Description:
The chain is α/β, with parallel strands linked by helices and 216 residues long.
Amino acid sequence: MKVLVVGANGQIGKHLVTFIQESENVEAKAMIRKEEQASFFKELGAETVVVDLEDDIETIAKATEGVDAVVFTAGSGPHTGPDKTVMIDLDGAVKTIEASKAAGVNRYVMISSFDTTREAIQSAPESFAPYVVAKHYADVWLRDTDLDYTIIHPGRLNNEDGTGQVEAASTVERGEIPREDVARVILASLEDQTTIGKEFQVVAGDKSVQDAIQSL
């Protein structure tokens, strides 16, 4: 299986491409925004493609050709305004979904926010609400397609070393999770076809990633 990792130069994306390249049955195609970001992935033996999420659907679809799955790990980041949140976390996500459809790629994994319900939007702090709104509608758009999707809702992200131990279910108590373990969950979800059509929250826990995914 070849997987296009959108947002590959992000922290989760780098972990994911590394794990994919270390696996036996999966290979990565890293979608990056600048050519100078390519060296990390080339050292791993991963194919790279330079595409900006603010490009049009046709350009993104060309990057999607030849893969079996797409993983959306991109994000505008904490230091941008609501405008970039809309352009990347919402429109960028929607464009990759449409590009996947155009390229005939049915498998799609979305890395969302922990809680993207309408209630979460209403209760979010003013500065965070645009992000939750963007993720909410990107999730809605994906659910309304015929793609073989999985939506992953990770808890608060940290940069601690991953343990490979998580808790995953349709709803879990709020908590943290290392970005490294989110990447492990993504790969396990890609390799387990029973995750198709499912969405779940995931935080640090006491089950192995494989056991947690199989128990969904």
